[in-house]
From TrEMBL:
It holds the Pfam family NMT1_3. Gene3D superfamilies: Periplasmic binding protein-like II. Coiled coil: none annotated. PANTHER family: SLL1037 PROTEIN. This is TAXI family TRAP transporter solute-binding subunit.
Length: 356
């Protein structure tokens, strides 16, 4: 989507000055993402002012954003996780198909990603449904409700996995008591999941020694005997756990009993299984699944999100090639989002192809 031509005569003095400053100023002493987001915001404001003052109604409708696809930052997760691998493939598609200046950003995942969207520092982001739910309600790590985090698509199911080693004597969630446990990176969806699981089993972090580690670091510390178990929420398989399984006997702790029943009361959790052959474990493990959502910045226009959605699903084979978990992404299931609403641009695409 291209910017409308901005007539300087249509701008207020303040808007014109800001646009001129943006064009003439040297590079900001900040990171590239912040620099271009700020510049894009100024351009967006200038364009909006020009349209309003000239009486032009082109572009997006009432209540929609006005940013196009010139810049697309894709907020993902740690660079050893599935989010990052799938997001990197999507970012490349946006560059190749839309001509976007697109980058993939490694983050702490869901919570941080939603904050990046809210603050205008990302255009597209991965997040789990429970994090989106808490953001909209202003619960958990979100002190105030986030007004809008529209979805582009439902992607694939994440599997909540508690990973340990066969010789650690951990056969149930309750056996985590007194152990050294990684609960995920700070401000990650994994940590939200860990807290929910522990509470569902009538426990708290006080029952074990909790450490806040990303996947790769948690697995390294498990190899070195520094932790006994780690919460890992991802598609199957998780590459860090696969690496661990090449040198150690991995056990996936099953979710069972009343704790499992409590988890399944949440609308966004479903029951799933981690097959034994995923990590060469001794047996299958019952667990819970949670949908992954691809979210859009509310600043993106309907046309921009339509183009992004079309690019992903018209090139779905390339997305599938990024990771085994991505093979579950289909245009038929994509409109089935929970917690939040589909962005109007995504709705337009799914209606066009008969998926909605």
């Amino acid at each position: 989507m291209s910017w409308p031509t901005i007539g300087w005569e249509n701008l207020t003095d303040g808007a014109a000055d800001e646009l001129a400053d943006a064009a003439a100023s040297p590079i900001y002493e900040e990171n590239d993402t912040t620099m271009r987001t700020r510049t894009t915001t100024i351009l967006a404001g200038a364009a909006a002012a020009a349209l309003a003052l000239s009486g032009c109604a082109g572009g997006s409708g009432e209540g929609e954003g006005d940013l196009g696809t010139e810049f697309i930052t894709v907020a993902t997760g740690g660079n050893s996780g599935v989010y990052y691998q799938v997001g990197a493939g999507m970012s490349q598609l946006f560059t190749d198909e839309l001509g976007s200046d697109s980058t993939v950003q490694a983050t702490g995942a869901s919570v941080e990603n939603i904050t990046l969207l809210k603050d205008g520092d990302a255009e597209v982001a991965f997040a789990m449904a429970d994090a989106a739910d808490q953001a909209l309600k202003g619960e958990g790590p979100f002190e105030e409700p986030v007004e809008s985090i529209p979805a582009i698509a439902n992607l694939y199911e994440q599997y909540l996995q508690v990973i340990t080693l066969e010789d650690k004597g951990i056969d149930s969630i309750e056996d985590l008591k007194g152990k050294r446990v990684s609960v995920g990176d700070v401000n990650s969806g994994v940590e939200l999941n860990a807290r929910t699981v522990v509470e569902a089993y009538g426990m708290s972090y006080d029952d074990f020694n909790a450490d806040y580690l990303p996947y790769a670091e948690a697995i390294d510390q498990m190899k070195n005997g520094q932790i006994d178990a780690a919460f890992v929420t991802s598609g199957l398989p998780n590459s860090s756990v696969t690496d661990l399984a090449t040198t150690h006997d991995v056990k996936v702790v099953p979710f069972e009993g009343e704790g499992l029943d409590n988890l399944l009361e949440y609308e966004f959790f479903g029951e799933g299984t981690v097959p034994a052959d995923t990590y060469d474990s001794a047996e299958d493990a019952t667990t819970v699944t949670i949908p992954n959502l691809l979210l859009a910045s509310p600043d993106l226009s309907e046309d921009a999100v339509y183009d992004i959605t079309k690019t992903i699903f018209d090139n779905i084979d390339q997305v599938h090639a990024t990771h085994n978990a991505a093979k579950d992404i289909t245009v038929e299931n994509a409109p089935d989002v929970v917690v939040t609403e589909l962005h109007p641009g995504a709705v337009r695409y799914f209606e066009e192809v008969g998926a909605l």
